[in-house]
Amino acid sequence: MQDKLDQLKARLARISDLRRAASVLSWDQETHMPPGGVQARAEHLGTLRGLAHELFITDEVGMLLDDLQPYAEQLPYDSDEASLIRVMRREYDKAVRVPVAWVEQNARTTSLAHHTWVQAKNRNQFSLFQDDLARVVDLQKQWAEYFAPYDNIYDPLLDRYERSLDTAQVSAVFAGMKPALVELVQAIAERADAVDDSLLRRPLDAQRQLAFGQVLSARLGYDYQRGRLDVSAHPFTSGFSPGDVRITTLVDPDNFFRCVKSSIHEAGHAMHGQNLKPSLFRTGLDWGAGMAIGESQSRFYENIIGRSRAFWAYFLPTMKAIFAPLLDDVALEPFYRAINKVEPSLIRVKADEVTYGLHIVLRFELEDDLLNGRVAVADLPQEWNARMEAYLGIVPPTDTDGVLQDVHWSSGMFGYFPDYQLGSLFAVQLWEAMQRDLPAISGDIAAGRFEGVLGWLREHVMQHGRKFTLPELSERVTGVPLSWEPYVHYVREKMGEIYGF
Ligand SMILES: [Zn+2]
């Protein structure tokens, strides 16, 4: 049996190499490639990704997985070998259902749709994007059909980004969370003047913003011997091996905290990649976890650590020194309050910890309605605006600030948005479990000792790669299922203290 396992691993290693090589090309495209490279790069990526897909869906891989099934069933469920066979079996059974023709058609359609989305967004004209978006939506519906029967056509799409997650589960979680957040936003709106965040809008030098992002990420445990920081319009993390996980961040001249939080967020993703168990590398369990598990790590660092009083008690002097003399007069309390200001806003990526969840609920409900035919593509702008008014009390003045703001739909990424918020919820559950295991952890953070946080996350989450689903990991680490309640409790307590209710 060891021989068959070795054969499977050898095949998966080659597939992993092709995917990693494609990731290097994508990273280059987003950071350093000249505009003239776009066309050829699309071909390079198409070829590499196509080859990886072809190698994976061969009969030989299927037969090896068949042969190894009885062996996997004798092993402990959480062993590396059983997990590898279990997860790859599922991936394989899904991959073979999707015709190569669909993959090619989807690549072409989304490539064009991305182009028209950029134009429509720049010109504030949804109609420019509408027909292409309709084609993208049709392709996603077609893709879902390859996985029929399903309870909800949205289920296969959700499963694409976080396996085993379905519409009913997400609906149940969001149904509990939504009214609590709406109520909290209203309570805070009545005390909106209690927090002043104008100090965040002091114009600060871009190079110093980057330098500070580098200091923060390094102190948290992101290893620059195995990574690097660059600038991109949309921050992201790319991992090629545990020895090379790179991050990008953005610089916003109007709000330096955006660079801070992006740097910390991406460092969270990157530490996840750097702390993978080495033996999982090149096995197929190493492509990062599901999207919600991945976001739980980045949001843990961004929100629970990076927006905490303890963290800034330690880092405020460093921040002042780096930006001296422009922040010399800033004290801890006003700064802590400023970075936690809750304010309904139009743009998801700029949202605070409370309203962010409502931005996600809006997209989740709209995607569900769209795929089920309850909302037509042409009606999206009006639907978007009506729901923004209902949940956040504001109406976007333009579609650029509304339905056109996110890149995801042009790329066919329906089913992705919920994972951002599920990651935020799970992060709070992890924080509660961490505090139980490490009662002195807040004191450690305030003293600039971050090894305990990283060590705990490594042991319980990061090292496992893709071995476990989100529900499995939640049960293993916290002893309870994924739940919205700890998150709502956390933001209510935190904002209650800041806003005085
Ligand atoms: Zn992220």
Name a few traits of the molecule:
binds zinc ion, 63% helix, single chain, 501 residues, mainly alpha, 3-stranded mixed beta sheet, 20 helices
Task: Give a written overview of the molecule.
By secondary structure, the protein is mainly α. It contains 20 helices and three strands. The chain has a three-stranded mixed β-sheet with strand order 1-3-2, sandwiched between helices. It is globular. The mean pLDDT is 95. Zinc ion binds next to helix 10 and helix 11.
What is this structure's SSE topology?
Layout: H1 2-31, H2 38-56, H3 59-74, H4 80-95, H5 100-123, H6 127-145, H7 155-161, H8 167-189, H9 206-220, E1 229-231, E2 237-241, E3 244-249, H10 257-274, H11 291-305, H12 309-323, H13 332-339, H14 355-371, H15 380-392, H16 417-437, H17 441-446, H18 451-460, H19 470-478, H20 485-499
Parallel strand pairs: 1-3
Antiparallel strand pairs: 2-3
Helix pairs in contact: 1-2, 1-3, 3-4, 5-6, 8-14, 8-20, 9-10, 9-12, 10-11, 11-16, 12-13, 14-15, 14-16, 16-20
Bound molecules: zinc ion.
The oligomeric status of these chains comes to single chain
The biggest beta sheet reads: 3 strands, mixed
- CA-based gyration radius: 23 Å
Order of helices and strands: HHHHHHHHHEEEHHHHHHHHHHH
Describe the structure concisely for a colleague.
With 501 residues, the protein is an all-alpha fold. The protein is built from 20 helices and 3 strands.
